[in-house]
Amino acid sequence: MKRHRNVKIVATLGPASSTYEVIRALVEAGADVFRLNMSHGEHSEIRARHEIIRQVEADLGSPIAILADLQGPKLRVGTFANGEEELVEGAAFRLDLDEAEGDATRVRLPHKEIFDALEPGASLLVNDGKIRLRVKECGPDFADCEVVVGGTISNRKGVNVPDVVLPLAALSEKDRKDLEFVCDLGVDWLALSFVQRAADVEEARQLCKGRAAILSKIEKPAAVKAFEEILAASDGIMVARGDLGVELPVQNVPPIQKQLVRRCRAAAKPVIVATQMLESMIESPMPTRAEVSDVATAIYEGADAIMLSAESAAGQYPVQAVATMDNVADEVEHDPTYRDIIESSRKVTHNSVADGIVAAAREIAETTNVKAICCFSQSGTTASLVARERPRVPILALTSVQNTARRLCLTWGTNCVITGEVDRFKAAVVAAARAAREQGLATEADMIVVTAGVPFNTPGSTNILRVAPCAERLIYSAESE
After folding, report:
1. Matching Pfam families, A to Z (predicted)?
2. Is 54 a catalytic residue?
């Protein structure tokens, strides 16, 4: 299904979007990637949704990417004898390992790793930051705190520790089981929650064994500080603004979002902007004006994808939420200012032959009447490099590898077509011309740019470019001359 926009839309599946009819409607409304949230749902439910997506994919004849989002280590307080307590600003409150139920003065925090890492002056945030504690004194099994911001604390509320790098593995025991399950299932992308260091990504990659691409969620200050190393170790990035906005001052999130999007683009790795994009559409058929502006901002910044969470998973208007995103994207990308912003933020990167080839392809397309850039890519690298250039013409990625076509559904502006294997460049040009015509990107009277790597089927070998006619008879005629 050819899109008339470049940014991709990720829709989370859940109770509101678990049937064939709704999932197909989401694709037809504009969803390119489906997120399976491993924090919710049994394996049987995840399997059923996966099967439906693949059935919709087969019925529509167009690749669809599936992203499995691991829960990550969840830090939570224990329970209270009264179910909840009111913490007052300035009061003392203790966190410890005692298994007794909590009261207004203390509660269990069953995570010894936190106590091992804490230092006096560190902040602890409870219930999405609604309660803030400052550590006054701590030891291997306790932390005596002062209540800086009070509020109601209740059973098993989440805890964030923004000031320190915790000695926690990014993958819990549940995550390891979920990882093995979804990789065997055949997901295309695996999202890691609460990444703190590049080693977290490498651990997941070893467990994945090439079965899925690795996407790191940036939602902790430690991840922002170590971003270059995490980006280098990852195949993609998600700017997860929910927890990031809890652990950092909220005013810090917009500039961080902009910086991370640009750095991902420079590295030719896809980046998703996520969390609360159309939050009001959980209960309303219309978004707020501020939400629409937020979605538009991510598109203007050049993000590869924008994501819906509860809006499509549990909301009352999942299809409308996707359609709204699609409409906003279409409007933004037809704004002349959009091209000005995208092109002014293009970073010149000529470190390899492949960099030079894709830059030349974009310049040729923009200074002539070429209708599309067609790239043959077994691993997806060539298509990702072309997308980094953010060309004005459509990108047509041709590959004989189904998994590559699916993974590229997350990459900006890329239309993916699965082709047979080719071993000669002329055959590649013929296949590209045929695909461009079939996708409605060009007619027999038009020209296309074709890029590929010779020898074929060698990842990362992009080294050839040709401007070719779309009419096959002209291709053969040119070859014979």
Report:
1. PK, PK_C
2. no
Q: How far apart are CA 32 and CA 303, in angstroms?
A: 14
Task: Give the CATH number, domain containing residue 132.
Answer: 2.40.33.10
> What pLDDT sits at residue 467?
93
Per DSSP, the residues of 91-104 read: -EEEEES--SPB-S
Asked about 12 being catalytic, the answer comes back as no
- Domain end marker among 136, 160, 184: 160
Number of domains in the chain: 3
- Please report, for the domain that includes residue 301, its CATH number: 3.20.20.60
Whole-model pTM above 0.70? Answer: yes
Active site residue 35: yes
In a domain, 346, yes or no: no
* Catalytic residue from among 47, 54, 76, 136: 76
Two tokens, residue 297: 């901002």
The helix/strand/coil state of 106 is strand
Tokens encoding 448: 């296309």
- Reference 313, options 9, 5, 34; nearest CA is 34
Q: How far is CA 122 from CA 132, 161, 246, 250, 425, in A?
A: 10, 8, 15, 18, 60
CATH code (residue 415): 3.40.1380.20
Quick one: pLDDT at residue 481? 40
235 assigned to some structural domain: yes
Taking 70 as the pLDDT cut, the residues of the chain under it are 1, 349-350, 457-460, 474-481
Q: Which domain holds residue 152?
A: 84-160
Report the C-alpha gap between 386 and 412 in whole angstroms. 10
Q: Considering the domain boundaries, does residue 347 fall inside one?
A: no
Residues 407, 410, 414, 419: what is their CA dihedral angle, to the nearest 10 degrees? 20
Report d(CA 359, CA 286) in Å as an integer.
Answer: 41
**Which residue among the candidates 3, 106, 132, 217 is catalytic per the annotation?**
217
Distance (Å, whole) CA 372 – CA 185: 34
Catalytic-labelled residue, pool 5, 24, 35, 269: 35
CA distance 416 to 406: 8
For residues 198 and 302, state if they share a domain: yes
| C-beta of residue 54 within 8 angstroms of C-beta of residue 86 | no
Task: Give the tokens for residue 129.
Answer: 């930051």
142 lies in the same domain as 252? no
Cα–Cα distance measured from residue 35 to residue 309, given in angstroms and rounded to the nearest whole number: 8
Same domain, 359 and 473: yes
